[in-house]
Write a structure and sequence with these properties.
- The chain has 144 residues and is an all-alpha fold.
- It is built from six helices and no strands.
Length: 144
């Protein structure tokens, strides 16, 4: 505890003002620290911390979450889109086959499929820009 050298009324007022400023500073620091502490437990912060691709692959290796999800979603998707007008037996066969295929898919297979599909659309732009470069025309030129 502090010892104050208060001899006059002016010293008392100065000490009182000093304590009030110190109290306000500590109050603001405590509020800011509390907000920072609580922000680490928000939904977005938890997703950023735990939902990284490496963590998802580790969880998928143990539990095969993507395979289970695909075994449920793939038959529904196939029957609702491609085999919409098909009969009961066709839908049942598609459901069984696509369920088995879905179970065999894991996160690595899904990411490889996504990258290959993404690559199909990316190659067109690269070939187009190469065509212009081969002829000596810059790709951003107005004369195509």
């Amino acid at each position: 505890m502090r010892k104050y050298n208060i001899r006059t009324l002016a010293d008392l007022q100065a000490a009182k003002l000093e304590l009030k400023v110190e109290y306000t500073l500590k109050q603001n620091m405590l509020k800011n620290d509390g907000k920072i502490f609580l922000k680490q437990f928000t939904f977005g912060a938890l997703i950023k911390k735990f939902a990284t691709p490496s963590n998802l692959f580790k969880a998928d290796e143990k539990l095969n979450i993507s395979g289970t999800a695909m075994s449920l979603l793939l038959p529904m998707f196939m029957n609702k889109t491609i085999f919409r007008g098909a009969g009961f037996l066709t839908k049942a066969a598609v459901g069984l086959v696509s369920g088995k295929v879905g179970k065999s898919l894991d996160a690595e297979h899904l990411s490889a499929i996504f990258n290959s599909v993404k690559g199909w659309f990316g190659k067109k732009k690269e070939q187009k820009s190469k065509k212009f470069i081969d002829y000596g025309i810059p790709p951003d030129s107005e004369t195509y």
